[in-house]
Amino acid sequence: MKVFTVNGSPKMEKGNTSLILNPFLEGMREAGAEYELFYTSKLKIGPCIGDFICWDEKPGKCIINDDMQMLYPKLRNADILVLATPVYVPLPGNFQNFLNRLLPLIDPVLQVKAGRTRAKLHKDVNISKIVLVSTCGWWEKGNFGTVIRIAKEFAKDVNVEFAGAVLRPHSDYLGKDNKKTMRVFENCKLAGYQLVKEGKMHSDTLKVIGSPLVSRKKYVD
Questions:
Q1: Are 46 and 214 in contact, with CB atoms under 8 Å apart?
Q2: Nearest 5 degrees, angle CA 121-CA 113-CA 157?
Q3: Hey, which residues does 152 pair with through a beta bridge?
Q4: Domain locations in the chain?
Q5: CA of 120: how far to CAs of 84, 112, 115, 158, 202, in Å?
């Protein structure tokens, strides 16, 4: 099983998103998957210019010559796409560019499902699951609402399973070396292992990852 992972955090390896993403990927690796990890801040990815040449004139081919040309073959060969990002308003800019530039992977044969226009991936794209890994600074998990909707909508748009979200609110507290944070990291690894071995992450595992590390009152104070 091949896993394509993209981390949209501008802080890259030093960000809170990496703190939960790394054990998650390690769990996938221990379960037998191979993964590649890319940071959007290390890549040259320009914005989509919206000319739809990749749909109309040259299906599957993007005319913009930047680092996405190197990523497209890897994306096509991946079985699972892991989207990792902190919550901004709603997403970091480079990460949004990456998402928009996935258009050449989509087959421009549209269908209406439940009142919504949808598409699917080209036949040469192996991605069957999309997973979200995300952190935010605010205390409550409700802060992830928009980012989750983006990931879910994209999965529906390309007719791929949304396999769940690994969510860590008030992620600045992950720097505290205590039993609670260690339990979060252990369950991040377990979630990755479960996804590969069983095809899904357990709800109780995800619940532990997102459990409070500090009371709301102490956070607000």
A1: no
A2: 30
A3: none
A4: 2-220
A5: 22, 12, 16, 4, 27
Which tens digits make up the pLDDT trace of 148-196?
999 999 999 999 999 999 999 999 999 887 999 999 999 999 999 999 9
For 113-152, what is each residue's pLDDT tens digit?
A: 999 999 999 999 999 999 999 999 999 999 999 999 999 9
Asked if the peptide bond before residue 169 counts as cis, ω within 30 degrees of 0, the response is: no
Phi and psi dihedrals of 140, rounded to 5?
Answer: -90, 150
**How far apart are the C-alpha atoms of 104 and 90, rounded to whole Å?**
23
pLDDT at 63 > cutoff 90: yes
Phi, psi angles (nearest 5°) of residue 127: -55, 125
Q: Which of 16, 67, 8, 18 is nearest to 39 (CA)?
A: 8
pLDDT for residue 176: 80
The fold for domain 2-220 equals Rossmann fold (3.40.50)
